[in-house]
Amino acid sequence: MHRLISRLAINKPTINSLMKIKTRSQSSSPVKTPNKNFSSAAAAEPFLNGGTSNYVEEMYNAWLEDPKSVHASWDAFFRNAAAGAAPGTAYQPPPSLAPPASNTLPLSSLVPSGAAGFPVAGGNLTEKIIDDHLAVQAIIRSYQSRGHHISKLDPLDISDASSSGGKELVYRNYMLEEHDMDRVFKLPATTFIGGKEKALPLKEILKRLEDAYCRSIGVEFMFINSLEQCNWIRQKMEPPGITNMDAETKRLILGRLTRASGLEAFLAKKWSSEKRFGLEGCEILIPAMKQLIDRSTEYGVESIIMGMPHRGRLNVLANVCRKPLEQIFSQFAALETADEGSGDVKYHLGTYIERLNRMTNKNIRLAVVANPSHLEAVDPVVQGKTRAEQFYRGDNEGKKVMSILLHGDAAFCGQGIVFETFHLSDLPDYTTHGTVHIVVNNQIGFTTDPRHSRSSPYCTDVARVVNAPIFHVNADDPEAVIYVCNVAAEWRATFHKDVVIDLVCYRRNGHNEIDEPMFTQPLMYRKIKQTKPCLDKYSAKLITEGVVSQEEVKDVKEKYERICEESYQKAAHATQIKYKDWLDSPWSGFFEGKDPLKMNPTGIHEETLRHIGKRFSSPPPNAAEFEIHKGLERILKARMDMVENRTVDWALGEAMAFGSLLKEGIHVRLSGQDVERGTFSHRHHVLHHQTVDKAKYTPLCNLYPDQAPYTVSNSSLSEFGVLGFELGYSMTNPNALVCWEAQFGDFNNTAQCIIDQFISSGQAKWVRQSGLVLLLPHGMEGMGPEHSSARLERFLQMSSDDADDVHTSFSSNFDVEQLHDINWIVANCSTPANYYHILRRQIALPFRKPLIIMTPKSLLRHPEARSSFDEMVTGTTFQRVIAEPNEGRNYRKLIFCSGKVYYDLRKARADRGLENEIGIARLEQISPFPYDAVQAETSKYPSAQIMWAQEEHKNNGAWTYVQPRFNNLLHGDIKYAGRATAASPATGSKHQHLKEVAQLLDDAFA
C-alpha cells in the first residue's frame, strides 16, 4: 500500500509554507486581488478540483491585500495560521456554516452524493477529508511531474532513469493508509486518467497513474509554461489503453524492425572487420523514424531535412531514405572516385531522395545532411537548410518542410552547439517551426560512463530551456516507441515547437565494430551479452499474441536477406564511386547549359546606382508620421549628398550591391550580431520609429515593386550556431546571396568548427558547393588583441592552392579558372567599389565558392575610402590588384599591401615626399593568388625592390602565404615590413600600438 501511494514528490500544501510568502509579498509591490468570487462556500471548489497551489496562493495574496475579499472561513484560517496555530488546527468554521463545536463544513454541492470516501448529501466535510483530497491531488501531480524518475526505461534493467537520487525525491508519506485504497476520490480537472469517469477509488487512481507515467514511457512536461500544452500532453498520456495497437500496425512494426536488424547482420557478415557504426541495440530507431515521417506526411509535410551522427547512418540511408543498397555496399569496396575532391568515409556522407511514401501515398523529399565527426556541428546546418527551404516555398508556418535531428546521448548533453541551436528555435528569422529531436541514448559515450560525462540527471535536460516536452522511452518496447513518435509528430504539427524523443537503449558492440567495450564497461557488457535483441523479443511477443506465426517471421527475415544479397551482387560490378550520388543539396538546373568558366559582368547602369542610392538615403515615405532619430536624419542627408556627387562610402557601396541583386531577382540575406545597424553604426538598414514600438522601415525592401526579398536579421549572441545556420541556408538555393557578419572578425574563432569542417572542405569531402559570404571586421586600430585580427592567416593556410604551382602564361579567363579550382576566396578590400564588385561576383560566377572578406572598421568613415560611380558602372569589374597610377615614374621600390594599411602607407609616403620614388599596390584578392595581375604590375618597374607591408604581426596576416608565391613568381626575394612575430594578435596599449605603427612605416620607407 505505502509503496504505491508514496511515489510522490510534492509535499502537501500547508499554510505554514504559505506563511513564508507573507513577508515577501508584503515587502514587494502590492498584489492585485484576483478576479475571483471568494464570498461563498462554492469558491472552495477549485481547491478540491485541481490547481491547488495556484488557487490557494492567489487567495492568500488577496487576503493579504484585503481580508474581506475572501470567505470568512479562509479569513479565520489565515489569521489562525499567522498567529502560530499548529498544523491541522488552523481551520475554524464560521457560525454561518456549522455549529461551533462540530468543526465540520457541509460540502454536499461539491461531491458526488453517497460515493465512498465522501459524506452523503447534507453531510459534513471534516478537516481529514480535505487533507486526504489534497493528498490525492498531490499524488496525481507528483506522478505527472516526477513519474519518469521511476519509469522502466532501461532495457538492461541495470539503472534507473535518475542518476542523482530521483527515488529519494519521489518517496513521500501522505498519511493515506491501506484502508483508504477503496475510497473514491473526485478527480481534479488537471488529469485525464478517468476518461469519462469523474471519480475513482484510490487503488485505481494509482494503477492508472502507474500505467501512464511509470512503465516504458517517462515524460517530462510539467515545466512547460503553457497550460494548454500541458493539458494536451496529459490527454495523450493518461487515458487508459492509449498505447494499444491493432494487429496490422504490429506487423508493420515487426517488418520494419526486421529490415533494420537484417541490414546490420548482413553488413556484419560481409564486412566483419570494417567500421560501420552499426545500430545494434537500437534497431527500433528505423521503425521510429519511418513512423514519424509517415505521421508527419499525414499532417501535410512534404520535405524533411535530417541531421545525424555516424551511428546508424547507413541503416537510415538504406531503410528510411531507401537509398539503393548497391550504392551503400560499393562504399565498402576500394574503388576509385569518379568525382573531384577527397571524398569522405561512408558514415559521414549525406543523401537526397524523392520518393513515394507508400503508407500515405504522398510524395516525400528526404535529405540527410553530410557532417563530420564533430557530432552535433550539423545541427544548425540542418536548421538553416530547413529554414531556407521553408522560405523559398512560402511555408511561413513550417507545415510543408520540417527537420529531424538525431543525437547521441553524450554529445547531446556535452556539446554547446546543441544549446545554441535550441536557442534559435523560436527566433523570428531563424525558427524552423518545430524540430523533432531523437536521442539514441546508449547510456554511455565512447567509453565514458554518464556519471562522468554530465552533471544533470538526463542527457536531454538542455531541451527544457525552450519548453520542449521530453519523452523518455524504453527502446526495447517497440509499441511504446511508435506511440511516442505519433505523439511527437502530432505535437510538432499542432504547436510547431521542438520535441525530444529519448530512446533509452544500449550499444551492443563497442564504439565501433572493432572496439572492445569490456575494457571499460565490463558489467554493462556482460549484461548486454545476456540480453536478447529487440527483434527476438518482439517477434516472440507477437507470436504469443497470435498476431504472426513463426513461419511469417522467418519469411520476412529471409526475404530481406535476399534483397541485400542481390544488391551485393550489383555492387560487385561497380568500378567507381560517385560522390555526386551522395549529394544532400542538389541544385537542379543550375549547372546545366552554362560555360563553367564564363562570368557575367558585375558593373551596372548608373541610373540603377542612382535609384538605389536615393531610396537608401531617403527617410520612410510617411516621414511626417514616422519619426526617425535626429542623428539618422544627418546620416541620410550625407548619403544623399554622396549620391548627388556620384560617390559612395562603404555602407552605400554595400547597399548598392545588395539592391542591384534584389532588382535582378536574387534573394539577399544578411545575418549576424547587430547587423541591422552595424556594429560600428554605419549600416542602418532598419530605421526605427522613435516613439512607436516595433514600427520599422527597411529601405532595401522598398526599392522596386517586383524585387526579390531582402532579409536582414540581428542574430543571437552565437557564432558557431548562427554561422552553421547560414551555411545551411546557403546550400539550399545557389541564386541567393547569404552573408554572415561577425561582430568583430576575431569572433569567428568560436565558429571554427563550421569553418574548418564544413566551409573550407565541404566541396572536397561532399561535392557540396556554397556561396556563403563571411564578413569579418579586421584591422589593427589599437583596440587590443580581441578586437583587431580576424586571423587572416588561418583562412590562407587552409586555401587549397599550391605556392609552387606558378603559371608562366595566362589565359583570358585565368582569374575564373583559379576561382573554379580553389576551395574558397579570401579578400581584403580597400575600396567601396571593389567591395561592391566582389559581392556581385558571388552571383555572377557560374559556380559557387565561399567568400571570406576582411572588412574594415576605420575605413567605414575614412574620407579617402570613397569610390566614384565610374568604378561601378557597366564595363567595370572587381580588381584583384589595384595598381599604382603609372605616370612615367620609375620606382626604386614597389610596396604591395592589403586592406587598411594602404591608407597609412600613402599618408606616410606623402609626409616623406616619396611619391616619385616608392609605389604602393594593393592586393585585394589574396587567395587564389592573382599571379597574372601581380606580374603585370611588377613588370612595369623591373628594377624596383619588391616589398610586402602589413599591419599584422609577421607570423600572422598574409605574409607567410604571399612570400613564397612572390618569390616563385619573381625569382627573387621579397622584403618584409611590419610587426615582429608575437603570440598575441595585438597589443593592448595604445602607446605601444602607435609605436609599432611608426616602426612599420619607417621600415617600409627606409
From TrEMBL:
Domain Transketolase-like pyrimidine-binding: 648-862
Cofactor(s) essential for the protein: thiamine diphosphate; Mg(2+)
UniProt keyword annotations, A-Z: Calcium, Glycolysis, Isopeptide bond, Magnesium, Metal-binding, Mitochondrion, Nucleus, Oxidoreductase, Thiamine pyrophosphate, Transit peptide, Ubl conjugation
SMART domains to which the protein is assigned, alphabetical: Transket_pyr (SM00861)
GO terms for biological process, alphabetical: glycolytic process; tricarboxylic acid cycle
One GO CC term, this protein: mitochondrion
Enzyme Commission number(s): 1.2.4.2
InterPro entries documented for this protein: 2-oxogl_dehyd_N (IPR032106), 2oxoglutarate_DH_E1 (IPR011603), DH_E1 (IPR001017), ODO-1/KGD_C (IPR031717), Transketolase-like_Pyr-bd (IPR005475)
Pfam families hit by this protein: 2-oxogl_dehyd_N, E1_dh, OxoGdeHyase_C, Transket_pyr
UniProt subcellular location: Mitochondrion; Nucleus
Molecular-function GO terms, alphabetical: metal ion binding; oxoglutarate dehydrogenase (succinyl-transferring) activity; thiamine pyrophosphate binding
Keyword Membrane: no
Catalytic activity: N(6)-[(R)-lipoyl]-L-lysyl-[protein] + 2-oxoglutarate + H(+) = N(6)-[(R)-S(8)-succinyldihydrolipoyl]-L-lysyl-[protein] + CO2
The UniProt record lists the keyword Ubl conjugation: yes
Catalytic class of the enzyme: oxidoreductase
Family: Belongs to the alpha-ketoglutarate dehydrogenase family.
Function: The 2-oxoglutarate dehydrogenase complex catalyzes the overall conversion of 2-oxoglutarate to succinyl-CoA and CO(2). It contains multiple copies of three enzymatic components: 2-oxoglutarate dehydrogenase (E1), dihydrolipoamide succinyltransferase (E2) and lipoamide dehydrogenase (E3).
Protein name: 2-oxoglutarate dehydrogenase complex component E1
Source organism (scientific name): Allacma fusca
